[in-house]
Design brief:
Chains A, B: Pfam families: Nitroreductase (PF00881). Chains A, B: It catalyses: iodide + L-tyrosine + NADP(+) = 3-iodo-L-tyrosine + NADPH; bromide + L-tyrosine + NADP(+) = 3-bromo-L-tyrosine + NADPH; L-tyrosine + chloride + NADP(+) = 3-chloro-L-tyrosine + NADPH; 3-iodo-L-tyrosine + iodide + NADP(+) = 3,5-diiodo-L-tyrosine + NADPH + H(+). Chains A, B: Its cofactor is FMN. Chains A, B: One of its GO terms (biological process) is tyrosine metabolic process. 2 copies of one chain form a homodimer. Chain A has 9 helices and 8 strands. By secondary structure, chain A is an alpha+beta fold. The first copy, chain A, has a domain of about 160 residues: NADH Oxidase, CATH 3.40.109.10. The radius of gyration of chain A is 27 Å and the shape is globular. Chain A starts with a helix and ends with a strand. The interface between A and B is large, with 157 and 158 residues. β1 of chain A pairs antiparallel with β7 of chain B.
Amino acid sequence: MTMAFSSLTPVFVAIICVLIGIIVKGRKTNSKNEPRKTSKKAESRPWVDDDLKDSTDLHPEEEDDGEWQESEDIAHTPFSLERYSEEDMIKRSKNFYELLNKRRSVRFISDEPVPREVIDNVIKTAGTSPSGAHTEPWTFVVVKDIEIKHKIREIIEEEEEINYKKRMGDRWVNDLKRLRTNWIKEYLDTAPYLILIFKQVHGMLPDGKKKTHYYNEISVSIACGILLAALQNVGLVTVTTTPLNCGPRLRVLLGRPTNEKLLMLLPVGYPSKDATVPDLTRKPLDDIMVVV
Amino acid sequence: MTMAFSSLTPVFVAIICVLIGIIVKGRKTNSKNEPRKTSKKAESRPWVDDDLKDSTDLHPEEEDDGEWQESEDIAHTPFSLERYSEEDMIKRSKNFYELLNKRRSVRFISDEPVPREVIDNVIKTAGTSPSGAHTEPWTFVVVKDIEIKHKIREIIEEEEEINYKKRMGDRWVNDLKRLRTNWIKEYLDTAPYLILIFKQVHGMLPDGKKKTHYYNEISVSIACGILLAALQNVGLVTVTTTPLNCGPRLRVLLGRPTNEKLLMLLPVGYPSKDATVPDLTRKPLDDIMVVV
């Protein structure tokens, strides 16, 4: 009995060593995970869909002061802006509202050609958007090639069909109406231009290190808002789409680098003769504005 | 010797049991963390700063088809839009670019009053923005009350001072230049209007359940882009700010519900006589546009 144990002793010791080893290893991985779960990094991760898995962390503790401007020591120059009379301001604000209030998301787009110079100008306009620390983290890929447009349509319809059919299961019972929609997106062929908007989730510094692009998704979304206004201003239509799970395949198709992630796709052209839109209304001012 | 070991045996066994216990526990917590790290929820969590911790998850598998329109069975109506000649389109696109290219982020704002009707119109214009599934998930809080503006300034400067001083430590060595910036934001007192833009991270259904607001942050950011264009169009200036860690206190100060999270704060007014802006340039078209 005693003999047996004493002979087993080295085994016990071995077991203990192994177990301690396992624990220490476990501790290490934990301590690696904890901060990811609790640190600002994790909380400040921008929204990402399946396409956008790689790190676009913000680092609030390295964040600029919340104003979207380089805080570096850059020379300042005097600024002035054309000043309108109050009467003119009211008239201009009313006219601009009436122009943009006619904007609708249109998915019936004519194949009539659109002057390329207009596309250049609306994208230059989007490029005037502010951005976190003036990083200008956007790339506008304008697709006019018929075959590439069709490849884009194939990728999106393939993914949308999967999304759609997966959804049907979930919604079958309580939302039969949704079944009337489908994943066919003819406008991806007919629209003379597809504008794919990529956000640059980080930049590159001369020393090859990653340059953080603060608020890159918000910045690029703001630029898209300005782009939508510019399109409406010239009488072109589009529909704001965020193709689900298509980002990586479209990025590869268009040869964009890995630091660029698809944020939006806008088919652009004239509305087709038989274009229709859902009979939706917008919230009145009192429902969206509070004055204190 | 042998005696010693045999008497220690129970101790070995005890130790082994404890160690095994610890390992099993460790395993449990790991397996609890794994899914959180890899699930869609975690990946699809919108960007949140310290203010915005509560759930604004997207569920791509429940996502609509990527087009920002109700897929419900809504009646469709014919759509048409004013058609401009190609010459007019080019001219309009050029003029709009030149107007918006004069926009700069300005933090020297005059206390001259601005017609309230203009503010109403620019916010109505922002409200024409598209939104995921037409949820219109935005609330624009317009602050003109002098005392509330000052309270907002106190909250922001208090937080910014902390952010700033925390930052100084990190950057002391390699970025002395940044020290020239500070956390004083006089424009929060002087601007006749502060527009605080809240995103509604979810809505409420009649049955009291949460209504998912797909892409609420992107939607509200697009609306901000349109708002910036509307402000520039009437000769008003602002600076795009995302006050770090101030959201909850500002939300409470303004009495907004918990489903609303501060996304942006825009001080709005005329530029002050001595306003200056950093001498920054914008990327040329070739650096932001790719045509295929």
